[in-house]
Amino acid sequence: MKRASPLLCTSSGRKAGTGRQHSQQPISFVLLICLTVCFTSLPASAQDPQKAQEPQEPMLIGVLDLEANNVPEGEARAITDRLRYYLGLQDIFSPIERNQMNNILEEVGFQISGACNTDECAIQVGKILGARKMVAGSVSIVGNIYSLQIRLIDIESANIDREVFRDVNSIGEVLQVATQDVAQMMAEEVTGEADPVAPVAKGQVNVLSGPSGANIAIDGQPHETTPRVVTLDEGPHEIVVTMEGYETFTQTVQIQAGSMIPIHATLIPLPAVSTGTVNISSDPSGATVLIDGQDKGTTPLTRLAIP
Questions:
Q1: Is residue 196 part of a domain?
Q2: Residue 271 resides in a domain
Q3: In terms of domains, do 87 and 121 share one?
């Protein structure tokens, strides 16, 4: 039919050569058929460009309070709120506000006793809220390290779409970096931009020392003091730990994607240096005194300490 319409138009035009008044009606009628067939055969996006440009409606997602392990409840609540905020910045998600979620659960008489951190509890809450996804997990402190464990749960399939672990050094890094990274990873999982097979080309080292507070240098670059978790690219790296009065600790590590390598630097005290004293005079006085090439002043010198 699509190819026949132009032929009909041409044929009618040629037959219409014998009579002008007679030819206009067939041509107009056939042209109308051509336009109708061509227009209706176009996809919906071409017929209505504005409709094609409409963005996909964000999916409703609920965020449960993170379980606090050795973390103050106030900090865990702040981390949950910050994660919800960053999820809302992703075009794919529409997070349910905390107060709205609590009101819906209260209306149906659902009470969360303690932390709703199991997948079963998250799925049950998600069904009540009408959410397509739920986010649950925990935040812990081990030593001086904040550890995040976050799960993205699909309500319909009851499967965990993605589980993310992040270890950082401070509450500031959790709020400003880790929660933002987790939200982006969740969005990439839903949009299909994430590649679960491809390894992450970074790993971490957890540098500890005895005593703590030692200076860390990695590949010649300073990285504050121990204890410290540092994220590094794949490959070999030289870890140097130093502290005044102790021997220098050096270790080379091979970082692999997604690995966490612990480094325990046992610092050995330097041997005590015995010293003595000496009195130095000269005639005439005022002579410069050098010991091992170092200027110690001018004579007379009394009780000058030397190793």
A1: no
A2: no
A3: yes
Residue whose C-alpha is closest to residue 214's, from 169, 161, 267 = 267
Q: Is residue 197 part of a domain?
A: no
How many domains, the chain? Answer: 4
Query: Do the strands 133-142 and 59-63 form a parallel or antiparallel pair, or are they unpaired?
Result: parallel
Span 228-283, pLDDT tens digits: 888 888 889 999 999 999 999 999 999 887 778 899 999 999 987 667 788 888 88
| CB 124 within 8 Å of CB 133 | no
In this predicted structure, what is the pLDDT of residue 223?
A: 83
In the three-class reduction of DSSP (H, G, I as helix; E, B as strand; rest coil), residue 168 is classed as strand
pTM above 0.70?
no
63 vs 203: CA distance, rounded Å: 28
Q: What does the pLDDT look like over 113-162, one tens digit per residue?
A: 556 778 899 999 999 999 999 999 999 998 778 889 999 999 999 999 99
Least Cα distance to 230 among 169, 150, 180, 143 occurs for 169
Q: In the listed set 166, 191, 216, which residue is the last one of a domain according to the structure? A: 191
Domain span at residue 19? 4-52
The continuous run of DSSP H or E covering 87 comes out as helix 73-88
